[in-house]
Amino acid sequence: MGNFIQTILTPIEWIVAWIMYGWHQLFTTIGMPAASGWTWGLSIVGLVIVMRAAMIPLFVKQIHASRKMQLIQPELQKIQAKYKGKSDPDSRQALTSETMELYKRTGTNPFSSCLPILLQSPFFFGLFRVLNGLSSISRGPDAPGGRTPIGPITQAVASQAEHASIFGAELSSKFIGAPNAATQIVTVLLIVLMSASTFTTQRQLMMKNMPASALDNPFAKQQKVLLYVMPLFFAVSGVNFPIGVLLYWFTTNVWSMLQQFYVIRRMPAPGSPADKAMRERHERRGTTVKEISVKGLAKEPADAPEPPPEKPIGGQRHQPRGKKRAKGTGQRSGEPGQGGAQGGKRADSDGTDPAPPEPAGA
């Protein structure tokens, strides 16, 4: 298992090393000191920019997948309500089958939103291994615990990067076993910034980009848990990472926060507060909002058309009767007829009403 992970991470380490070294060379070319911690720190920021910019197409797919998942939530809740309280194997299988059929019919994939996180994880661990291995590389491959260079990170470059410091804290140092108080202070500051940026990003997603109907589903409850668990996770695990990795992590969080702010403003989830705000902006400008539709999702029209008037049987049109014609048939205009075979009154040939019958015994 260890050899398998090593095989996967080795090319990632080389990519990370070359990107960092490329940015470092760029900054030294414009006059920044080669051994400065700020030069190497900005090289780590450059690594984040390159990596996240390369993943923008995947992020766009993630946004579309998330919006589709929001649109199919009513259908998904109907399926879940259909099998609520049923724990037998047949019901569970039917629930899974109908849910997968909904995903297939609408072209949605609940795992698409995880792609950017999964793809950036190897780079995170690759940077961790590069920074954690600087001391081993600087000792040389022949020394005890030494390591061979990683791409352009030779023994001399590794020694330079290992001792590069920001505010007196070396980028390769950790909170645990820190050589001085400056390292602990910088580590705590970065952990607080990481936690604050993560909390802001998650809260922004929940408060602005979720419709009210979606706040009670399991996904929203999971987001609420992550809102408070992730900062705690950073606080516990951050003390074990080098300052350079914490800087990478904080820069990634800032990128995610700004990117999400732009997306929520321009492409909000339907029915969310951000969607309402966007529609109000379009209304003030006199422009229209492009509506989103999901393939295979039945959508009822907002205003159903009125049914056409019924046609008379046989295609014949009933003509209105005039006053004279109504008298001729023994009825007043607008009243139902009483003549014919039922013994009703008859009109005289000259169109006048007949005389009333004489009383009996006259």
Detailed description of the structure:
This protein is mostly helical and 362 residues long. Among the domains are: 1-72 and 108-166, no CATH class; 167-286, no CATH class. Helix content is 59%, strand content 1%. The chain contains 13 helices and two strands; from the N terminus they run H-H-H-H-H-H-H-H-E-E-H-H-H-H-H. It has helices at 2-29, 37-54, 56-71, 73-82, 89-106, 115-132, 134-139, 155-162, 181-208, 218-237, 243-266, 273-285, 323-328, and strands at residues 165-166, 169-170. A two-stranded antiparallel ribbon has the order 1-2. Helix 1 (2-29) packs across helix 6 (115-132) and helix 4 (73-82) runs antiparallel to helix 5. The longest helix has 28 residues, at 2-29. The protein is elongated, with a radius of gyration of 38 Å. Residues 300-307, 323-353 and 358-362 have low confidence and may be disordered.
Which features would summarize this protein structure in a list?
362 residues, mainly alpha, two-stranded antiparallel ribbon, 13 helices, 1% strand, elongated
Layout: helices, strands, pairs:
Blueprint: H1 2-29, H2 37-54, H3 56-71, H4 73-82, H5 89-106, H6 115-132, H7 134-139, H8 155-162, E1 165-166, E2 169-170, H9 181-208, H10 218-237, H11 243-266, H12 273-285, H13 323-328
Antiparallel strand pairs: 1-2
